[in-house]
Amino acid sequence: MTFDAIVLAGGQGRRLGRVSKPDVVVAGRTLLDHALAATAGARRVVVVGPPELARPGVTVVREDPPSGGPVAGIDAGLAALDALAGDEVPGVGGSAAAVPPGTDESAAADAPVLVLACDVPQAAAVVPDVLAALTADVDGAHLVDAEGRAQLVAAYRRTALRRALAALAAQGGVHGGPVRGLHAHLVMASVPDPHGRGDDADTWDDVARLDALLTARSAGPPVGPPPTPARPLDRRDSMAATPPDATPPDDAPLDDAPLEPTPTADAVLTPRADAAPDAPSAGPVLRGSDLHRWVVVVGDALGVDPGSLDVDALLDVTRDVAHSVARPAVPLTAFLAGYAVATGGGGREAFDRVVDHVGALAAEWAAAVEAAQARERQGGPGPAGAVPPAP
Question: Which of 138, 146, 147, 201 is found 20 to 30 A from 267 (Cα to Cα)?
Fold first, then answer.
């Protein structure tokens, strides 16, 4: 079957501490890459989300205005697919797709459209069933879990989808609308999901469970008795990711099992490409989801908004400090940077300013050391003060 695909990746990840949900790692692969793998066989693929999610061969667009919800995302994605096909059919909600010219224009105008949320890492297992359920007597088909809840793993007939979006636009617009409102204008077939393949990674508990499940599945059948699951570092992560009126998933006391070891600075530092082959290991490799989860836990405990922190930027600057100065300088620099952010008023603006300043200082230090070493190789120590004082 010829079909196109839309991957919705523009959510705000509120229950994950507002980290970039498409970039969260589950079983060694980002959620977005899991979703893109589930679109294998699609003629064209559009990701609706920020431009940072760009992948080779995939068009990335945003709904207008951003953060408009899944229906607005579907509208923007359909507009992009139509533009790629040369149909020139604008999104009924006003979304515009900036897509490259010269793409294939030979496709059928009414090819089905597969729609996936980016946070369903097992979708590939059920996409064939959803597409097969798109029979001539229905407008669409979607996955439904064991409790009867619809999952955002769906396929639509293109013409019917345009008609439903137009109906919503006439009723007030597609921005902020729920998917059930879209489906109210369509004849939908339900595809049962008894094995939970449509489970989404909506909280950090979901991420941990799906990560363990997919990792174990990729490793093959277990040998011997199953291992005892390791207890999380703290239950405050689930508190931060779960609404106040929800029941915590685990009420057992924390002292009945040993805590996992606290990550050290070495665990998050990337070795230099020019490191000697026999150089000591940088320590255990932490998954991206583990790092973001830890940030949410610590931020919740300290009363700090995780949204004011750019994890990747901070890891980059601490890596530069480790390489340019010394590894023991990493925790000291991180403390001084955090203190400077606080005294500078806090918030993302202060964080960005401090991290940029520390990064520039690390680069200057590395340049001074390199210049001094070059002078020593040429036969002299150079002028006094040219080398930063030894730690």
Answer: 201
